[in-house]
Design brief:
Number of strands of chain A: 0
Shape of chain A: globular
Number of helices of chain B: 7
Largest sheet of chain A: none
Mean pLDDT of chain A: 95
Strand content of chain B: under 5%
Oligomer: heterodimer
Strand content of chain A: under 5%
Radius of gyration of chain B: 20 Å
Shape of chain B: globular
Helix content of chain A: 55-70%
Radius of gyration of chain A: 18 Å
Low-confidence stretches of chain A: none
Order of helices and strands of chain A: HHHHHHHHH
Structural class of chain B: mainly alpha
Helix content of chain B: 55-70%
Chain lengths: 165, 172
């Protein structure tokens, strides 16, 4: 049992626990599970500037998205420090370079822009949206993969040079 | 949570301010901080989700890369299992008419379809493939000590501001 916990979890176990997040968050906090709204929240809370998109955002009621993000950080810290028998490799070591940093910033930019334009990410659209039988979320998910597959197969040799295994 | 009563109170309380101020602040009326219990519950579920993300390895760049290369079914199995489990439980919640611990009726508001779902979705997918992380895993990577993920996070904020700036000119 302890060994099971300390090893990386199998897909079926992880899948069930990820699926549970949706009803848990609804039942315990009356919130629809989603993460990328936290980006808009941070902008609206810290520096909305003159952007209607941020000025109109209800950042007080939306503050739960940042709390949820903080929870994820704490949870991941716990998983790494106390629940893993071996170190977790998040990013390949080759990302720790100027080229790696540039790739991450550009990729992050696409994530921030894309999720906000699409109105959600893998959690809000793919998990929560599809499980609530909302067809726009299925469309969004299909195009998440269109973008990801296009980049990996089309530009992969160039973008992942020296990084991919 | 203050619930339905709280919402009507809020609306009443904000009415005078609404009429005395200029149009731009109208949208923020009724914007209140969630209750302490809600915040505590959100934090708990967040910690739970962070543990699951990292222990399931969906936070690993290599797993995402192998997913897009069709090298292993791992990520596809996790995502589809998650969707099925969530769908079944949401169905149960609706059939039984279960309420939140605050006594609220559980209601999911579908995200609307617009051009951005297609264009933005594709752009996000590209970023997911490059960084090996969607928004949840970005936070998990930072919390887990993968400091390079701070670059990804900085990028997301730049992208979010770019969207805030361009939004009036983008098709929706």
């Amino acid at each position: 049992m302890v060994d099971f916990i300390m090893q990386p979890w199998p897909w079926w176990f992880s899948g069930i626990l990820i699926g549970l997040t949706v009803p848990l968050l609804f039942l315990l906090a009356d919130k629809a599970f989603g993460i990328s709204t936290s980006f808009q929240e941070i902008g609206a809370m810290c520096a909305p500037g003159n952007f209607e998109y941020l000025k109109r955002h209800q950042w007080r009621s939306g503050i739960w998205t940042v709390v949820f993000a903080l929870g994820i950080m704490v949870g991941s810290f716990i998983a790494v420090q106390f629940l893993s028998s071996e170190p977790v490799e998040f990013l390949p070591a080759s990302f720790a370079s100027a080229g790696g940093a540039i790739r991450l910033v550009i990729g992050g930019l696409l994530i921030g822009f894309g999720t906000r334009y699409a109105g959600g990410c893998t959690s809000g659209h793919s998990i929560t949206g599809i499980s609530n039988l909302s067809w726009p979320s299925l469309v969004a998910t299909i195009f998440f993969f269109v973008g990801g597959l296009a980049v990996t197969w089309g530009l992969g040799n160039w973008i992942f040079e020296g990084i991919a295994q | 949570m203050s619930g339905v009563d709280g919402k009507t109170e809020t609306a009443k309380a904000d009415e005078p301010t609404k009429s005395s101020e200029t149009g731009t602040t109208v949208e923020t009326k009724g914007d209140r901080f969630p209750s302490f219990v809600t915040i505590a519950m959100v934090l708990l579920v967040g910690i739970y989700f962070g543990i699951v993300l990292t222990k399931s390895e969906v936070v690993r760049w290599q797993r995402v890369h192998d997913m897009f290369l069709f090298r292993e079914p791992f990520m596809y199995l996790i995502i589809s299992t998650g969707i099925v489990v969530a769908a079944v439980l949401m169905l149960v919640i609706r059939k039984l008419g279960l309420k939140t611990i605050q006594g609220e009726v559980i209601k999911y508001e579908p995200k609307p379809f617009h051009t951005g779902v297609v264009i933005g979705g594709t752009i996000f997918g590209a970023g997911w493939a490059i960084t090996g992380a969607c928004p949840g895993p970005i936070y998990a990577q930072i919390g887990g000590g993968a400091w390079m993920a701070l670059f990804t996070f900085a990028g997301t904020l730049v992208g979010m501001y770019l969207y805030a700036w361009l939004k009036p000119r983008l098709p929706h």
